[in-house]
Design a protein that fits this description.
Number of strands: 5
Strand order of the largest sheet: 1-2-3-4-5
Structural class: alpha+beta
Distance between the termini: 27 Å
């Protein structure tokens, strides 16, 4: 199969179901968007705009993300019946203290794009096969400490161990070490704080520089696996209804 680039979501898609990866990134079928994901985008946008306004110390009316509920709902065409839910998720973020350390924020919706293969032998030469891309919700820097914040609007809360082993955390740990921070030469652990707004709970994990190096090599190994996968197989799950390949999926036909 092809690789345009690597990202946490693409890696997790391949590991969850190789056939879905094939449908999305080989056949380029448009992914069905779960309604909950659209609502999450609206909450993320409201929080992003408020964060940017606070960091820039401009547009005080935007410092309260409640003022953005209606505009972001219109942006994503979310039914008015979901207004209270969007409002409550934002309220939970504020009450949990999401903005308390905003003075240390140096990046909001921080995009990254970096090559992984420096000094690592490549088994399958292919343009961008080792290009890792992604976007970090919020990046805080205080002295030698770097904290990555990530907003979650779903109900499921993974354990600390599950989070630490997730490719989102592992990719972000690699990416954090590529940002031009003055303390980068001394950067050791990177802290991650996940804000589960539906449950009003935060979960924190930390990853080391050694973790980042090990995961960088494992990512390249996964890239080889994806490229060499010429017979992607389905792995049925509760996410199947949101895969555009579902009707052609051999797992469904076999039922």
């Amino acid at each position: 199969m092809r690789i345009d680039h690597l990202s946490a979501s693409r890696i997790e898609t391949f590991l969850r179901c190789a056939l879905q990866y094939h449908a999305l990134y080989d056949l380029k079928l448009e992914e069905k968007v779960h309604p909950a994901a659209t609502l999450g985008k609206a909450v993320h946008l409201a929080m992003e705009l408020s964060t940017r306004a606070m960091v820039a110390e401009r547009h005080p009316t935007l410092w309260d993300p409640h003022n953005l509920v209606i505009p972001v709902m219109r942006r994503y065409e979310i039914p008015n019946g979901e207004r209270l839910r969007v409002w409550q998720l934002i309220e939970n973020a504020i009450e949990m203290g999401y903005f308390e350390d905003i003075d240390y924020t140096v990046g909001c919706e921080q995009a990254f794009s970096l090559f992984l293969s420096e000094n690592v032998p490549l088994h399958v030469p292919l343009r961008n096969r080792d290009l890792l891309v992604g976007v970090i919700d919020r990046l805080d820097w205080h002295g030698d400490d770097v904290t990555i914040h990530d907003l979650k609007t779903g109900k499921h809360i993974p354990s600390e161990r599950e989070l630490a082993n997730s490719w989102q955390v592992r990719c972000y740990n690699i990416a954090a070490r590529s940002f031009p921070l003055e303390s980068e030469p001394r950067l050791g652990g990177v802290k991650f704080k996940f804000w589960y707004l539906a449950s009003a709970r935060a979960v924190e994990v930390e990853k080391s520089a050694e973790d980042a190096e090990e995961d960088r090599i494992e990512l390249l190994s996964l890239a080889d696996r994806i490229i060499r996968c010429d017979d992607p197989q389905p792995n049925p799950s509760g996410l199947c209804p949101y895969c555009l390949y579902e009707e052609q999926c051999p797992a469904r036909k076999s039922k």
